[in-house]
Write a structure and sequence with these properties.
By secondary structure, the chain is mainly α. It has a single domain, classed as Mitochondrial carrier fold. Helices cover about 65% and strands about 5% of the residues. The protein contains 11 helices and 4 strands; from the N terminus they run H-H-H-H-E-E-E-E-H-H-H-H-H-H-H. It has a two-stranded antiparallel sheet. A two-stranded antiparallel ribbon has the order 3-4. A hairpin with a 6-residue loop joins strand 1 and strand 2 (about 155).
Length: about 325
């Protein structure tokens, strides 16, 4: 269904647009992503106790205990690496779609899925260490309190059924990265690679074809010749919502595998299959959809904003390139 690609396929403006899109998107939705991470990592105690009752409760307690900047804990590493990550994801999808489109300008739906999946595969080289470091920083407030000898973090203080948070430990992405490399080598930064690949390849195979069809449909309904920000924004939000919910079980597994700081009594996982089995055995199938709503309200606007900014053509304007979309 895709329209024929333009004859001139320039990489540089796409890379720059992808980086700008990622930075803008992350800045807007990061606090919700932090809440999502903490909700996914929360395990119900033997007596049914839990630190956070809901998304709003998690956000409220985080803001109260850690302040506004606490809502952006871990944002630094994300903003640093989101430029190559989003550039890889968006540009690789464009490249694969360009290569797989036939001479008549037709791209088969299976080829669209292959292009999206290929983009997801390319991005995990950056995504895996980025999210591993981000998760440690995001989850530090949840585990603040008593030191846990099994991990790099701490545990919550509980009194009379109520949970309060001590000051989060002073850690940084650099210190975590150096510790991992020292103890486990460079591969230590790629813990959870398999789960990340399962999530990102599947997500991209769903998201990009769906976005392309919705974007094309929106232009046709409005009688537009070119992509416009608001159509790309809405298409990205809708496609992101569907894809994010679809792969949430993989995201739960990935988050738990990549969480190095375990609160006292929390389960430790040795791999993807072990995480799936233990999570299902102890918490049931609904555990795989923990943080699903939060993930949806993170990913949907993130990709909507990123896709809209990507199609604005900022780089083309700055560099004097002809608009490519």
């Amino acid at each position: 269904m895709a329209a024929k690609d333009p004859p001139q396929f320039s990489y540089l403006p796409r890379i720059i647009n992808g980086g700008i899109a990622g930075i803008v998107g992350v800045t807007c939705v990061f606090p919700i992503d932090l809440v999502k991470t903490r909700m996914q990592n929360q395990q119900i105690g033997p007596g049914g106790e839990r630190m956070y009752k809901s998304l709003l409760d998690c956000g409220r307690k985080t803001l109260r205990n850690e302040g506004f900047l606490g809502m952006y804990r871990g944002a630094g590493v994300n903003l640093l690496l989101i430029t190559p990550e989003k550039a890889l994801k968006l540009v690789c999808n464009d490249v694969f779609r360009h290569k797989l489109t036939n001479s008549q300008g037709y791209l088969h739906p299976l080829s669209e899925m292959a292009a999206g999946g290929g983009a997801g595969m390319c991005q995990i080289i950056v995504t895996t260490p980025m999210e591993l470091l981000k998760i440690q920083l995001q989850d530090a407030g949840r585990t603040a309190g008593n030191k846990n000898t099994q991990g790099m973090g701490t545990v919550p203080i509980q009194a009379r059924g109520h949970t309060t948070s001590a000051a989060p430990p002073k850690i940084s992405a650099t210190s975590i990265a150096m510790k991992l490399v020292k103890e486990r080598g460079i591969l230590g930064l790629y813990k959870g690679l398999g789960a990340t690949a399962m999530r990102d390849i599947t997500f991209s195979a769903i998201y990009f074809p769906l976005f392309a069809h919705l974007n094309h449909l929106g232009k046709n309904l409005l009688g537009l010749e070119e992509n416009v920000f608001y159509v790309s924004l809405v298409s990205g939000i809708c496609a992101g919502a569907v894809a994010s919910v679809s792969v949430n079980p993989f995201d739960v597994v990935k988050t738990r595998l990549q969480t190095l700081s375990k609160a006292k009594g929390e389960r430790v996982y040795t791999g993807v299959s072990d995480a799936i089995l233990k999570t299902y055995t102890h918490e049931g199938w609904t555990a795989f959809f923990k943080g699903g709503f939060a993930r949806m309200i993170v990913i949907a606007p993130l990709f909507g904003i990123a896709q809209g900014v990507y199609y604005l053509g900022v780089a083309e304007s700055l560099l004097g390139y002809p608009m490519q979309r």
